[in-house]
Amino acid sequence: MNSHLKRVTTLCSLAILAPAVQAKPTPSEPAITKAHAVYPGFSRPPSQGENYNTWSDAKGPDVGATTVDVSRLPSRVDNSARPQFPAVYKQIWGACGQFASVASIFTYEMNVLNGTAADTDATRFPAHFSWNMINNAENKGSEAYHGWEVAKHIGVPTAKSYGGVRLDKIGVWPDGYHIWREAMEYRVSGYRYTPLNTVEQLNEARAWLYDRNQPKQGGQTVGGLFAMDGRMGELKKVTVTLPKGAHEAGKKLWTKWGPSGYGHGIACVGYDDEVGYDVNGDGKITNDVDLNGDGKVTLADWERGAFIIVNSWGDEWSNNGRIYLLYSGMVDPTWKRGNYLGRVEVARYQPRTTLRLKLACSDRTDLRMNIGLASDEQATAPEQQFAPEAFNGWPLFGRSNAGHVPIAGPGDDRPIEAGIDLTTLLKRLGPNEDGKGRLFLSLSRADGSEASGELIECAIRTYDQHGGFVRESVVKVGDGSFGESQFTLEASVDGLPVQ
Ligand SMILES: [Ca+2]
Ligand SMILES: [Ca+2]
């Protein structure tokens, strides 16, 4: 293993920390349709429990909801050749999970949705925005779902606003309302991890890569992608070059996951049914010989058919940053993470009401923020309230959070200006006929924490239904310091969207 590989595999080691709960498919029912409640721990936030439906807000059909017709599938699909797919990245630090799930897959999906190309930072999305929400402000690995949940809860800004696909410092949070406001527009509506053990599941996955199992939609078929979690130790043992005369001769292929090491987030961009390799060395490439000697022929025995992987180790690695992985390579009882494919549906969203805050805090994970609203401007208590995840230590993610560091980042005591979407909170209030209401904002710290901070500015901004800025109502803060005592702000607000 060269030093580069060693570095990367060491850095993506979150894999080993998360509980590896194994899926338990019911033998009598197709796993595609029945596996939803039994996904392993690395595929969803631990706080949400195993019945959390990660696809529930998506508009497209869930896995198993459409018929898979393999007759229409071409023998090869490579979505990385599409203009919606960004150039191959070269990651720094352990951000592989976010390079795959956000910088590659979310970027691709958002460009497909918007009808744009991922050719500038204005249409690419950063790996580090979501990474810095969950990496404890350290060089720590992450899961694909972390990025997709960040996009569900607060969105992801473009790389242009953010300052690039990656930053040169770990743990930095953006300072600038416009960055947080832009993030609100680019969201994930649902995601789904599925196991790959059977030919039925493989066909469903190939069809997702080809046209998402929605062949009639608009006539034009733009397929989806998958996040994968490979094991990267001793890769030389499983990497082969397709021999002269073979389909795709000269290209590199993984016959299976590395025999040791930790997880590494990568993107699956397509497949090629013709690519094959004589794994058992019998001189033939077969899909009907029991290679692993378990007495039956299953997908695990296949020598022909491979996924196309894009890795974030730069375009000089392997073949322009790409490599094949035999379909059968994903079926490995010693690396259960490698058996799962993660897909995502993205959405555009326009906030109507937001909070613009400028605040400092010595420990952003121990910060506790509660926002309440009442439709009566004389109200003495909120009718509806919520505690935004990012400003309450990301309870969603359990132990993964943004780190016990100042709100701007490690060693940076400056305040940041941020934005928080209030649209859903306001909708829960119901019809508001006069556009008036009352805001209740409290800032404090977690029990037992020594954190302190200060609210410096506060304003409510409203937008029209196309996202156009309408007005800002400044809320007078006064002495906004908090820490040992809680800071509370109550103020009448005007100009709320009349619903
Ligand atoms: Ca063979
Ligand atoms: Ca077998």
Automatic annotation (TrEMBL):
Signal peptide as annotated in the record: 1-23
Keyword Hydrolase: no
SUPFAM superfamilies, A to Z: Cysteine proteinases
Alphabetized PROSITE patterns for the sequence: EF_HAND_1
Keyword presence, Lipid metabolism: no
Keywords, ordered alphabetically: Signal
InterPro entries named among the record's database cross-references: EF_Hand_1_Ca_BS, Papain-like_cys_pep_sf
Gene3D superfamilies with a match to the protein in the record: Cysteine proteinases (3.90.70.10)
Protein name: Peptidase C1A papain C-terminal domain-containing protein
